[in-house]
């Protein structure tokens, strides 16, 4: 079973590698980077989330498992909705899933993102970059991983998604921030291995 790792708006293909390296070596893995976001080189063909969704689906010639962080989770949810027969299992880590983040107490990340990544494509911080999604229609078994100290995607968002996605289970990591997968790789890997195994 191929495992596709989707980073957040930081866009680095290296984000998930510490977790991936702890998972079984015989699980085929592919790590995405997002052109034009974070410090990744720009690609004029990438102008929004629709193009990133296409990048992911182009790698799906068989049923796969998706592991996604933050904005990558919006892409993963969109893929799971569009290609239900090709997504076996889903892991969404501190994502928005296309829900009303501000209404659930999330801090606005855009200004800090622009300071960290001044050359990132303009579309990523434009309002409405992540429209609402009918997550109730996600059929894949879904693991939700949240940190309890994340201001960008608070645990309330994870609880909201757990209530809406039919076959979802929320795991909360004590002390975890928005980079919980990077700061708690052993625990996050154990949760993912149990879900995908």
- Main beta-sheet strand count, sense and barrel state: 6 strands, parallel
- Give the CATH topology: Rossmann fold
What is the top-level CATH class? Answer: Alpha Beta
CATH architecture assignment: 3-Layer(aba) Sandwich
Beta-strand percentage range? 15-25%
Q: Compute the separation of the termini in Å.
A: 10 Å
* Structure summary, number of beta strands: 6
Total domain modules:
1
What structural class do the secondary elements suggest? alpha/beta
Q: Which outline best applies?
A: globular
Number of helices: 7
Description:
- The protein has a single domain, classed as 3-Layer(aba) Sandwich (Rossmann fold).
- It is an alpha/beta fold and 197 residues long.
- Helix content is 30%, strand content 17%.
- A 6-stranded parallel sheet has the order 2-1-3-4-5-6, with helices on both faces.
- It contains 7 helices and 6 strands, in the order βαβαβαβαβαβαα.
- The protein is globular and about 40 Å long.
Provide tags for this entry.
6 strands; 197 residues; alpha/beta; Rossmann fold
